[in-house]
Amino acid sequence: MAAVPEKPSADLSVEELRRYARHLILPEVGPEGQRRLKAARVLVVGAGGLGSPLSLYLAAAGVGTLGLVDFDAVDASNLHRQILFGTPDVGRPKLAAAAERLKAVNPNVRLEPFETRLTSENALAILREFDVVADGTDNFPTRYLVNDACVLTGKPNAYASIFRFEGQASVFWAAKGPCYRCLFPEPPPPGAVPSCAEGGVLGILPGLLGTMQAAETLKLLLGVGEPLIGRLVLVDALAMRFRELKIRKNPDCAVCGAHPTVTRLIDDESFCGEKPLVSSPAMFGRVPEVSVEELKAMRDRGDRFVLVDVREAHEWPIADLTDSVKIPLGTLPHSLDKLSKDDDIVVYCRTGGRSAQAVGFLQRSGYPKARNLAGGINRWAQAIDPTLSQY
Would residue 349 show up in a list of annotated catalytic residues for this protein? Predict the structure, then answer.
């Protein structure tokens, strides 16, 4: 059994005794456990797919103070999974909408919003004031930053991640077991792992994993049960199968090992799945780009060029530039016979990440006139053709 350090508990009002009645009759919680929850402080990093069910259940459970870190606005594409928000919230800052929803769930909860990007400059100061950190981020730079900050401040990290139909959850707490870097010492190379924006995610999946995070957080605060320290749960929603892997503390871990080399926080965007791969010259070189405005001018003038769509086939019906050659990125190495090395080539995808990879590959393969459409078909829909769907 592992628990965060106990602090003076807070008295419960008559209204709270009624509200938490089903908790109070659990011997593992009881009045004293509920008072511990009321005195607790939990930081939720990311008010998105995972942060939505996580923060809702923590608020409903009576966690006294919830910190929320997010700097984004609600987008229509969030609504199929981010249940903190509704259609009227589209365009609003996430933290403003989240505060209203959480206060409606439980007016007793105290909210501490941090409307900022978590960085090496502010992470330690933000995390230090909380008992448990729950990582609901969706990109590798922030995931490693949260882990390293938790190690340096001694905080437990209730972790989960999701992609398409699969997810994973654990508790990383260097004082009692492995940290995230013990499991994944190095981030993946640029483009190796698509973001959820590129690969998609089943809307219900963050509900499963975010609820697991909430359960682990409550167990840590109450000091009950067996937290997922040293265990990684893998969830396959298509098969509805749960597997568990044992993970051990790495004595040579760069941040929590016997001789750490990571002793301060750094910001590293080079492995962020959301960032266009043009920013990684070490792997892809300088990838030339064309703006959507330039592409429109080329089409209007009747310039001779080949437009190549490297998205997957299931994306074509959503939005399409009909004069394009369809070559999904994974098939590109076997489809070079469809292109001429003398052609001017413009490559596009959804937002520019996969097409940047394609242009890098084409240039290395002897296609010097290949260029990337900056911002992809979504940018084209925003700036040129609003009749096209954005996704």
Answer: yes
Edge-to-edge strand ranges of the sheet holding 370-373: 289-290, 370-373, 345-348, 306-309, 325-326
| Residue 391 pLDDT | 85
Place of tokens 């999701």: 162
| Axis-axis angle for helices 51-61, 205-222 (nearest 10) | 40
The set of long-range contacts for 324-331, using a CB threshold of 8 Å and a minimum separation of 24, is 324/348, 329/354, 329/357, 329/358
Which amino acid makes up residue 16?
Answer: E
User: Strand pairing partners for 229?
Assistant: 171
**Interval 305-324: pLDDT, tens:** 999 999 998 889 899 998 89
Q: Tell me the per-residue pLDDT of 118-160, one tens digit each, with 9 for 90 and over.
A: 999 999 999 999 999 999 998 889 999 999 999 999 999 999 9
The DSSP secondary-structure symbol of 47 reads S
Q: Answer for the pair 198, 130: CB distance below 8 angstroms, yes or no.
A: no
Domains observed in the chain: 14-246 (3.40.50.720), 277-383 (3.40.250.10)
| Marked catalytic residue, from 182, 256, 272, 349 | 349
Q: Which of 196, 253, 256, 272 is catalytic?
A: 196
- Is residue 272 among the annotated active site residues? no
**DSSP SS3 for 159:** strand
pTM for the complete prediction? Answer: 0.75
DSSP summary character for residue 372: E
Helices (H), the chain: 14-19, 21-24, 30-39, 51-61, 94-105, 123-127, 140-153, 180-183, 196-199, 205-222, 281-284, 292-301, 353-364, 376-383
> What CA–CA distances, in Å, run from 330 to 302, 313, 333, 335?
30, 11, 7, 10
